[in-house]
């Protein structure tokens, strides 16, 4: 029996996952939290094999936090369970030590099979992501633009695309405004645009936001 924990903002997801695995023969849900700050406490209190983690979880501001979590709990295997784009976030997730990425649009039997594979130590990402990573050096420069972005730059870009001001982004990421301005300049340079409007449009074109 694989024991899983769920870290997700949405009550409807809590209900669905709890109901589906209530009497499941292979998977048991043993803990649920709705804030990243509560994840460590859950992992300390519960015996969990696999953690389902939403990238948009409240308090999860950086892939680096996931990396730190894995350092603190080296036995835990993490599956990113998210609506965000796998081909954008998977490369950094793989570097951080995440075992799999499952879209929330997938059927629950796909999630279950992924949980079982991950519990056995198998890394599970889509064939498309594996091909993209393998062929990255052969792709055209325009196709590699988004891969130049760090996890933090992607986070800043998402906030900018949502209409957030530098001050708001700085508060959300616990950085100062000058640092956010620097990130914005880097983004303009890396995505080869000259203003915020074009930056947001390019991000949408590349499916980054």
Notes on the protein architecture:
- With 209 residues, the chain is of the alpha/beta class.
- 49% of the residues lie in helices and 13% in strands.
- It has helices at 11-20, 39-45, 63-72, 86-96, 108-119, 127-135, 151-161, 166-173, 177-190, 196-205; strands at residues 2-7, 27-33, 50-53, 77-82, 100-103.
- A five-stranded parallel β-sheet has the order 2-1-3-4-5, with helices on both faces.
- Helix 3 links the parallel strand 3 and strand 4.
- The termini are far apart.
Write the layout of secondary structure elements.
Blueprint: E1 2-7, H1 11-20, E2 27-33, H2 39-45, E3 50-53, H3 63-72, E4 77-82, H4 86-96, E5 100-103, H5 108-119, H6 127-135, H7 151-161, H8 166-173, H9 177-190, H10 196-205
User: Helix proportion of residues, in percent?
Assistant: 40-55%
Q: What is the H/E order?
A: EHEHEHEHEHHHHHH
Number of strands: 5
Low-confidence stretches: 137-142
**Based on helices, strands and strand pairing, what is the structural class?**
alpha/beta
Please give the count of helices: 10
Write down the overall mean pLDDT.
Answer: 87
| β-sheet strand percentage | 5-15%
Profile the largest sheet. Answer: 5 strands, parallel
What would the keywords be for this entry?
five-stranded parallel sheet, 209 residues, alpha/beta
Describe the structure concisely.
The chain has 209 residues and is an alpha/beta fold. 49% of the residues lie in helices and 13% in strands.
């Amino acid at each position: 029996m694989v024991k899983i924990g769920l870290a997700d903002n949405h009550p409807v997801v809590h209900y669905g996952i709890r109901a589906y695995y209530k009497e499941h023969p292979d998977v048991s849900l043993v803990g649920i939290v709705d804030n990243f700050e509560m994840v460590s406490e859950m992992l300390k209190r519960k015996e969990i094999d696999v953690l389902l983690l939403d990238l948009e979880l409240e308090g999860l501001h950086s892939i680096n936090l996931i990396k730190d979590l894995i350092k603190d709990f080296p036995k835990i295997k993490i599956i990113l369970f998210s609506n965000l784009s796998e081909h954008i976030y998977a490369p950094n997730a793989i570097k951080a030590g995440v075992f799999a990425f499952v879209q929330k649009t997938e059927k629950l039997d796909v999630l279950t099979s992924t949980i079982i594979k991950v519990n056995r130590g198998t890394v599970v990402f889509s064939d498309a992501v594996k091909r993209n990573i393998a062929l990255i050096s052969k792709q055209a420069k325009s196709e590699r633009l988004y891969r130049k972005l760090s996890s933090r730059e992607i986070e800043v870009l998402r906030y900018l695309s949502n209409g957030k001001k530098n001050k708001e982004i700085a508060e959300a990421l616990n950085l100062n405004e000058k640092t956010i301005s620097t990130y914005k300049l880097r983004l303009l340079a890396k995505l080869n645009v000259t203003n915020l409007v074009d930056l947001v449009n390019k991000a949408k074109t590349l499916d980054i936001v």
